[in-house]
Design a protein that fits this description.
two-stranded antiparallel sheet; about 220 residues; mainly alpha; 11 helices; elongated
Length: about 220
């Protein structure tokens, strides 16, 4: 099965219709070519410019020119916002599958179990390859989620702790400590706060050796 990132990139490429010059006045922009569009999708990753250029079979010099163009940068931003939203939505959807009634009849959510671990590990196997810009936007959109029930919010943060552990390169099965140690959530006097700044500044740097393995697998799968 493909990861969420590979599926998104594949679907975007498959559905993209390259604009034609016919009917467009000379000098007017006609949109991105298929190759140019494909390259914008790779900026969801932390691949270097030369690696992106090689992956789409263009020169690095040409890619650098593209990166000065507003339509090109707009496409990258749009991909980041869209995919970040999909990541947050997917986490919530998975969380919803664990919803059940407790002994007192109240709705409760289970924190990740083995089956959920395996699903998340598959969906986000290449999370170490996500760009800093993408991680930033994921956290902005995750932070914007509102939960009235503290236990639901706690569960939500537990899933992000799991994602942190995957990005850091921890192997399955994860220990509870690997997830709990995530700086995503700050515990103070029994309360849980979404530590946005800490989450962006420090904990998302992946293990270099495992990140390299992820990159190789990703490029082969493109």
């Amino acid at each position: 099965m493909k990861t969420k990132l590979l599926s998104f990139i594949s679907n975007q490429i498959a559905s993209y219709i390259e604009p034609e010059r016919q009917g467009t006045a000379r000098g007017e922009p006609i949109g991105l070519s298929s190759i140019k569009y494909r390259s914008t999708l790779l900026f969801l990753t932390n691949l270097k410019g030369k690696e992106i250029a090689e992956a789409v079979s263009v020169s690095y010099g040409l890619l650098r020119v593209w990166r000065t163009e507003d339509p090109y940068l707009t496409a990258i931003e749009r991909h980041i916002r869209t995919f970040a939203g999909m990541v947050v939505k997917h986490i919530i959807e998975i969380m919803e599958t664990t919803k059940t009634k407790g002994p007192d009849g109240k709705i409760v959510y289970f924190v990740v179990g083995t089956k959920i671990n395996d699903q998340l590990a598959q969906d986000f196997a290449d999370v170490a390859l996500y760009s800093d810009h993408l991680m930033n936007d994921i956290y902005k959109q995750a932070k914007a989620q509102m939960f009235d029930d503290l236990s639901v919010f706690h569960t939500f943060l537990s899933y992000w702790g799991f994602l942190f552990a995957l990005r850091k390169g921890y192997s399955l099965p994860l220990t509870a400590q690997a997830v709990f140690d995530s700086p995503v959530a700050e515990h103070q006097n029994g309360l849980i706060r979404f530590d946005f700044i800490e989450a962006l500044q420090r904990p998302w740097t992946p293990d270099k050796e495992k990140a390299e393995q992820v990159k190789i697998s990703f490029l082969k799968a493109l």
